[in-house]
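pinned: reference chain
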Amino acid sequence: MRSRAVDTHDLAALRRATIRARILRTLLAVGALVALAFAAASARGADVRVRSILPSGSTGVVVLDLSLSIQDTDYRRLRGALRHLIEVDAPVGLVIFSDAPYELLPPGTPARELQPIIRLLTPPERGQPVNPWSDAFRAGTRISAALLLARQMLERDKVSDGSILVLSDLETAPEDLQALLRTLGDLRASAITVRIVPLSAGREALQNVRSVLGEEAFASPTAFEGEPGEPVRIESGGALPGVLIALGALCLAALGAHERLAGRLAVPRPEGAA
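pinned: its structure tokens
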């Protein structure tokens, strides 16, 4: 059934306006479809997987602080960070340290091999966890030695895309501070990416490390406080991609312009008409 039309005897006078309206409608419709297509492609290309704290595609060495300064809440975060690595199936190596570092897992080890370490980091009802290295560690902490060992492991195994994940309160011995800052500077100048999960770190310790690595090296420690069965939360700037938002806005703008500029002419109904 055809819609009602307005009878006119001067169609030729409207021809140019008709052609202009058709062209405008076509351009706006094509623009909206193109923006929609690109928005869909952008959304399909977005990474919706659980994002690892380690750089994508890298082989990381986890540097795990088991010194006496680690507190109860820190052990929850340590376990949460290790469970996250298992969840994203990241290939890792493992170094534990207090005053002296020990290599437990070589780089490239499947992350599921961290599961026994999680059990060793689970404390009894009272006190700190008792692990096989408790008696070997003394009170002092030397983070620089652990970082050097992690770098040597990556270089020994010829890992070209290596990274280091430090799980520590960043409280090192006073005589180790300059060595730590120098080691962090050397790592930043190399191709090895360093990520930090600060535990119960003091302000001065945080500022010292941040002055070398920058804020982008740090992950929020509260992202790893869950226990088994709880989802692992990673703060990684989960905002919508800017390109997707812009393309969606263009699509809506084109549709709005189509309705405003190329819609049918509304003719008011005569008074008294049925």
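why pinned: Confidence is low (pLDDT under 50) at residues 228-240. The longest helix spans residues 15-45.
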